[in-house]
Amino acid sequence: MTLILRPGSVTLAELETIHWTGVPVVLDRSFDAGIEKAAARIAEIARGDDPVYGINTGFGKLASIRIASGDVATLQRNLILSHCCGVGRPLADNIVRLIMALKLISLGRGASGVRLEIIRLIEAMLDRGVIPVIPEQGSVGASGDLAPLAHMAAAMTGEGEATFDGERMPARVALDKAGLTPVVLAAKEGLALINGTQVSTALALSGLFRAHRAAQAALVTGAMSTDAAMGSSAPFHPDIHSLRGHKGQIDAAAALRGLLEGSVIRDSHITGDERVQDPYCIRCQPQVDGACLDLLRSVARTLEIEANAVTDNPLVLSDDTVVSGGNFHAEPVALAADQIAIAICEIGAIAQRRVALLVDPALSYGLPAFLARKPGLNSGMMIAEVTSAALMSENKQMSHPASVDSTPTSANQEDHVSMACHGARRLLRMADNLSMIIAIEAMTAAQGIEFRAPLVTSPELVGALSAIRAVVPTLDEDRYMADDLEAAALLVASGALAGAISPGILPTLEA
C-alpha cells in the first residue's frame, strides 16, 4: 500500500497513518506541473544578474554577499554541510519518516522551486527504507528546523548517515544498497530542504497522537476506577454536561456512561449508599478530561494546517515573483506543543489522584490497603502509586511553556525564535510518562474491581479488564513489578487498551 498525498489537503487521519504504520507515500502527480514551473523560475533567476536571497546570495547575516552563477551549486552544498550541527540521540525512524512526508507535502505546493528530482528521491527513500539519521537537538524553531533538516538533506546528497534494513551506515552506502543515486543540489534546493517547520511539526504530531491514545485509555481506566471505588455515575448524566456546553466535556461524559453501562457493581449501590459525593478525581472526570480533549482537538487543527503549509523561504508566488518572508517561524507549532503539554499534564494529574484514592483504605470504600491480598505481609500497589506520583511531578515540571523562552541567534538576524522543536520533542517523554501513569491506574483499577467479586463490572470494562489481565496477572502476593508496569504501559501506548472497547464509545480527535 502506498498513500497518495495531495498537498494542501492532507488530512490528520493520513498523517496519523504515516506516523503509526510507516506506509510509503507519494505526491499526487497532478502537482508535478506546479513544482516544475516554480523550479524553472528559480533556474531563470540563478542565471540572471539580479540578487535574490538564497538563490545567488549568502544566507542570514551574509545575505548581502553576491554569489557568482558558477558557484550556485557549491553554495547549496556548503549550506547543507555547514548546517549539519545537530547533536543528541537520533530521532526515531517513524518520526523521520513523518518529517520526510511533511517535507514532500510542503515542496509539493509548488512554491519552493525545487526540481521533481528532489521529490522523487524523497519518495524513493521512503519506499525503500533509507532513513536519514537526524540528531534530535539543535533547532530553535526559526529560519526553519535548520540543523535537523540539514541532516536529512545531507543524506540525500550522500553525506552523513542513514539506516537501511535496520543498520546504520554512511548515507552514500545506504542509497547505493537501495539502488538510489545521491542528488546534486541546484539553486535554492538546499535552502528549500532545510527551511521549514517539518521537524517541529512531526514531533508535535507524534506528541498529539500519543497523548490522544493515552487520553482515550484514561477514560477507560477512569471508568474502571469509578467502579472499583464504587463511585457514582450520576455526575455523568448528559443533562449536566449539555447545560455547560463544552463538546469535549459532553463527549467524555458520554464515553464514561457507555463504559459503565450494565455494571452490576454500579447498580449494587445506586440506593442505600451513605456517601453524597465522590472526590473530584471521580466526579469531575468529564470536566477535566473533556477540557483536555477540546484542547487536543484544537491543536490537531493547528497542526493539520501546518502540515499542509509552505514554510520555507523565499517563495515563488503566483505572479512568478520570488519574495522573502517568515513562514519558517514555528510559533504556531510552539504554542500547539505547549498546549499539548498542558493537556498531558492534566490528564495524568487527575488519573494519579484516582490511583491514590484506590490504594488508600480511608477513601476506597472497603478496599484493602494498597490493594494487597494480605496487607502488611504484602505491600501491594504501594510503590506503584509512588511511581505514578513521580511521573506526574516530572510532567508538571516539563509542562512549563517552551514558546516564551526566545533567544537571539545568528548575529541577531534571527532575534526572536519559537523554540518549537524542543518544545515538541519533550512531548514524547511526557506522553511516555502519561502512558505509564494510566498503566498504573489500569493495574490498580483492575485489582479493585476484582475485589468486588462476585459483583461484576460492565460488559465494556470486562473487555478492558481481560486485555489488562492478558499481560498483567492479578497481584495475589508481592512480586517483581517492573515488568508488569512496562507491559501495562505498552498496552496503553499501543492503543490496545482503548482498542478493547467497542467502536464509537471513546471520543476521536475529530470533534
TrEMBL record:
Pathway connected to this protein: Amino-acid degradation; L-histidine degradation into L-glutamate; N-formimidoyl-L-glutamate from L-histidine: step 1/3
Location(s) in or outside the cell: Cytoplasm
One GO term (biological process): L-histidine catabolic process to glutamate and formamide
Catalytic activity, reaction form: L-histidine = trans-urocanate + NH4(+)
Keywords associated with the record: Cytoplasm, Histidine metabolism, Lyase
Cellular component GO terms, alphabetical: cytoplasm
CDD domains associated with the record: PAL-HAL
Database matches in InterPro entries: Aromatic_Lyase, Fumarase/histidase_N, HutH, L-Aspartase-like, Phe/His_NH3-lyase_AS
Post-translational modification: Contains an active site 4-methylidene-imidazol-5-one (MIO), which is formed autocatalytically by cyclization and dehydration of residues Ala-Ser-Gly.
GO terms for MF: histidine ammonia-lyase activity
Record-linked Gene3D superfamilies: Fumarase/aspartase (Central domain), Fumarase/aspartase (N-terminal domain)
Domain of life: Bacteria
Sites of 2,3-didehydroalanine (Ser) modification: 143
5-imidazolinone (Ala-Gly), cross-linked positions: 142-144
UniProt similarity note: Belongs to the PAL/histidase family.
Cross-referenced HAMAP family: His_ammonia_lyase
Matches recorded under PANTHER family: HISTIDINE AMMONIA-LYASE (PTHR10362)
Protein's UniProt name: Histidine ammonia-lyase
Gene: hutH
